[in-house]
Write the structure tokens for this entry.
Amino acid sequence: MPEATFLDANELILNMGPQHPSTHGVLRVILKLDGEKILGTECVIGYLHRGVEKIGENRTYAMFAPYVDRMDYVAAVSNGLGYCLAVEKLLNVEAPPRAQAVRVILTELNRIASHLLWLGTHALDIGAITPLFYVMREREEILNIFEAYCGARLTTHAFRIGGLQYEVYEGMEKQVKAFCKMFLPRVDEYEELLTENRIWKDRLVGVGVLTAEQCKQYGVTGPMLRAAGVKWDIRKAQPYSGYEKYDFEIPTRTNGDTYDRYIVRIQEMRQSVRMIEQAVDDIPEGPIMAKVGKVIKPPVGEAYVSIEAPKGELGYFIVSDGSTQPYRVRVRPPSFVNLQALDTMARGGLVADIVAIIGTIDIVLGEIDR
């Protein structure tokens, strides 16, 4: 007897998103299902497209700087650092040591804030509401530091081409040290809630596996790559902003599943605290801006600079024609590249797993669509 079919098909095509709380923005995923089993996925993006790169080609170098904060708006400080480094490479200038130390402090605080928001929303997607309240409590302290430093909490425009616009405010070092001292025991609390939690492990272990070879094929970087056992971190491999001076480890795991990516990000927050404490204890005296003209006109040439953003390798490619505006701007956003692997990670899983898998990639659609 032939197998019964629905509309002459065994497969069900289901739209997930773009209006869906677990797609972390306006992501539409077309699921091909056999009952609860995922046979394939297709991502539809572009709902948040604003033409950021083309805007950059029609603004001066300084005018474009605030736009990059609005791509990965959860990690605006990292976005700004990558852009400033790319323009500084074109200009052949380097930020002074004092500016570099402050950049490291703010960027690592931003990495923690990004990972905290990821952890809270990822746990919420899977059904755990308590971690969200915990992580928001700590993230608020980081945002208070950002607000005191430059007046912004989310789209934190902290850096300028050539260094910093603002000196550290009075008591900033003390406030950052107090945060670091308070934060590490709080990470222990997150782990007590989740790391050995039977339900948490049932939902994450063995789900969304991506091997080291698959990561390399897709160009996947960041915590996803390190969770697959590849010890690659641009802060170590191609140091920038003085990262070579700091003592820190690169957390890695071997299974490449959703649980290992959770562990890597937890350990990364601990390492960020380690770097922040070293940087705060050794902020050198001196200027906070290199000698950069008020009108920025890099010589004819091109530059590519990549940094280790919270989600992976964030790269900026800029072509200068010698004018006050870039001839070409291209961004390599980690969320966009890492999302390619969703189909490979999801095939053979269940519908409930797709929520965990999207969460573990840690995407922001402002960065994907640009």
Notes: Residues 12-369 form a domain with the Cytochrome-c3 Hydrogenase; chain B fold (CATH 1.10.645.10). Strands lie at 12-16, 28-34, 37-44, 159-160, 163-164, 301-309, 312-320, 328-332. The longest strand covers residues 301-309.
